[in-house]
Design goal:
Largest sheet: 6 strands, mixed
Number of domains: 2
Strand content: 25-35%
CATH class of the largest domain: Alpha Beta
Helix content: 25-40%
Shape: elongated
Distance between the termini: 25 Å
Oligomer: single chain
Number of helices: 13
Order of helices and strands: EEEHEEHEHHHEHEHEEHEHEEHEHHH
Strand order of the largest sheet: 6-7-8-3-9-10
CATH superfamily of the largest domain: P-loop containing nucleotide triphosphate hydrolases
């Protein structure tokens, strides 16, 4: 089980993660969903001990990762957004080395490396230097490294980045299988990917946790309200009066569209009111040219949550010209992995440990 308590990370005056708290347990796949710059990678880097929080605490099975990093990290497999690979090693050499570092027993090490190479479909590349691999294969080698010690918990940052459609399907199936016996947390800004793979979804926006529920409940939230749109010919006053007789006045809007009127009625009853609305318009003498129901989608809920949070951001997070500061995930990737490859990325992680 992973417990995140009041986790906060500052980059100067910018708050990348803002007092985030949640708990995740075993046998499920959890998703971090959010736009670029929402703080997903920063949160994951703190959860895995690659980055120290400004405030807050991360407990891995009750172990504080900041106080006992070695013990806590034994339980975690981590795939960062940019996997830290040794480019001058072959795939097999790298995974064998990673297995040794992670304490995989010598008598089972060869078997375990072979198993993860097979699971990630990189066996045919085992004797190739990592520097010569495509981005998709490097991503899969990084996933294999996270899995090589068979950890209880897997934290995956954008695990399907750089993969082709066939590889994406294979990785999704693998994550589903792993989720039955492991705690899996993955991040993405792709709504369909998270909802397809995950049992529960967390939505982050500007460093804040704005929603935490199952995809089904989020779908129900999305469908809890629908809109009926009408195209009418008549006067605005008559249209408002006719529609307000069926739907509360505050849920009705009427605007001019050329020489016609565009009206919108918002109601949880949705389709049930179509007939009543049509009759009310005809009785009022309005010419009804179009009437249709528009369902609120899950995408709309996501956009509403993230836009509402963005609207509440303080002015100091803007540049002088009014544009937003550089994405916080650029900063977090720079600090956690520095977009570096091989030994530079590993050295950066070791530096954080010593801190």
């Amino acid at each position: 089980m992973i417990e995140v308590k009041d986790l906060t990370r500052m980059y100067g005056a910018v708050c990348a993660v803002d007092h985030v708290s949640f708990t995740i347990g075993g046998g499920k796949v959890y998703g971090f969903l959010g736009p670029n710059g929402a703080g997903k990678s920063t949160t994951m880097n703190m959860m895995t001990g690659y980055l120290l929080p400004t405030e807050g605490q991360v407990l891995i099975d009750g172990i504080d990762i900041a106080k006992e990093p070695k013990e806590a990290k034994k339980k975690i497999g981590y795939l960062p957004e940019v996997p830290p690979l040794y480019p001058d090693m072959t795939v097999r050499e790298f995974l064998t080395f990673a297995a040794e570092l992670k304490g995989v027993p010598k008598d089972t090490r060869k078997e375990r490396v072979a198993a993860v190479m097979e699971e990630l479909s990189v066996t045919e590349m085992q004797n190739r230097l990592i520097r010569g691999l495509s981005k998709g294969y490097r991503q899969r080698v990084g996933f294999a490294e996270a899995l090589v010690s068979d950890p209880e918990m897997l934290i995956l940052d954008e695990p399907t980045v750089g993969l082709d459609p066939k590889q994406i399907i294979e990785i999704r199936e693998l994550i589903r299988r792993l989720g039955k016996t492991h705690t899996v947390l993955l991040s993405s800004h792709i709504l369909s990917e998270v909802t397809e793979i995950c049992d529960e979804v967390m939505i982050l926006s500007h460093g804040r946790l704005v929603a935490y529920d199952t995809p089904e409940n989020l779908e129900r939230m999305a469908q809890g309200e629908s809109r009926i749109e009408l195209l009418l010919r008549g006067t605005e006053e008559v249209a408002k009066r006719a529609l307000s007789g069926v739907v509360p006045e505050e849920d009705v809007s009427v605007s001019e569209e050329g020489d016609l009127l565009r009206a919108v009625c918002v109601s949880p009853q949705g389709d049930e009111l179509r007939g009543k609305i049509a009759r009310s318009c005809v009785i009022a003498g309005l010419e009804l040219l179009e009437l249709r129901s528009v369902r609120t989608s899950l995408e709309s809920v996501f956009l509403e949550l993230t836009e509402d949070t963005a609207a509440g951001q303080p002015e100091e997070e803007k540049n002088a010209d009014g544009t937003e500061k550089a994405e916080t995930e650029d900063a977090e990737t720079e600090e956690a992995s520095g977009e570096k490859k091989g030994t530079d990325a590993v050295a950066e992680a070791e530096k954080e440990d010593r801190t």
